[in-house]
Design goal:
113 residues, alpha/beta, 42% helix, 20% strand
Length: 113
Amino acid sequence: MRILVVEDNPVNLELVMQLLEDDYEILVARDGLEGLEMALKEKPDLILLDLSLPKKSGWEVCAELKGHAIPMVALTAHAIKGDREKALEAGFHAYVTKPIDEDLLFETIEKFR
């Protein structure tokens, strides 16, 4: 399974990579524009997408990829009441908050295998 991780924070990116690199093929983009371009070119099996990104937000990337049949998981520190619902309505297929709960992350990824 190939997973595109779109994350601009080096600490968060390193954590996600350490968690996933043994079990999945990981592609990395460090801003929304790069993430969008990589998603269209590489057609990953799943995208873990931060919402607050430079160049294009995760919201914008999600909107542009909506018709491409690539599952997207919002991976975000946005954890205010209603944010999960907003993300799902916007086209995300799942929502995982930071700090990352490892079990929840793996459980979420496995739903898309």
